[in-house]
Design goal:
Length: about 190
């Protein structure tokens, strides 16, 4: 399932920022977000992979707040509270002053990008991610966003599978659940 090339990118970045920059549990272990220069490097890798530029230390720190806002959207959708998720996305769109702009780059056809009113890196990514999530929520594809259902894991995911049945953040979590079920049957 692909939303469209640009929206796929910003939705993927939203999930990656949430998983990288928010505390919780990851594959059965407590997860504490990295800090300092490691955080800057990791955030830079996520943004570069999406065609963006490196983040400064300050911008990476600001993206922690954006990630917390985005996590709220994934959690609301996962809990079946789509109205709440939509309110959170709308608040992000308003806060960032997201504005549409047609762009053409890298040999691609014209396509829609969303930028923040102030053009700062954190608000720019917040505006883009919020817009991508708005497209998903407004297009009846909200069941493609989720929080891992494995015990002791709260990492988020975007389901791009054909049949839309993904429920785990990773193969590792899926295997943990299957192994536990197998062992329980043997007992």
């Amino acid at each position: 399932m692909n939303f469209n090339s640009h929206h796929d990118v910003v939705i993927r970045v939203a999930a990656e920022l949430v998983n990288l920059l928010t505390a919780g549990e990851d594959r059965g272990r407590r997860y504490r977000p990295i800090e300092g220069d490691e955080r800057t490097t990791a955030v830079g890798a996520v943004l570069r992979a999406a065609g963006g530029r490196e983040a400064t230390w300050e911008e990476a720190a600001e993206l922690c707040f954006v990630a917390a806002e985005l996590r709220g959207v994934f959690e609301a959708v996962s809990a079946g509270a789509v109205d709440e998720a939509a309110r959170k996305v709308n608040a992000l769109l308003i806060r960032t002053g997201a504005r549409p702009e047609l762009e053409r780059h890298d040999g691609q056809a014209w396509h829609l990008h969303f930028h923040a009113a102030d053009n700062s890196l954190p608000n720019g990514w917040a505006a883009g991610c919020a817009t991508g999530l708005a497209v998903v929520l407004g297009g009846d594809l909200q069941d493609r966003l989720g929080v891992c259902t494995a015990p002791r894991c709260d990492r988020v995911y975007v389901d791009t599978s054909r049949n839309g049945t993904r429920r785990y953040c990773s193969t590792s979590c899926q295997n943990r659940v299957k192994t536990a079920a197998f062992r329980a049957r043997l007992s």
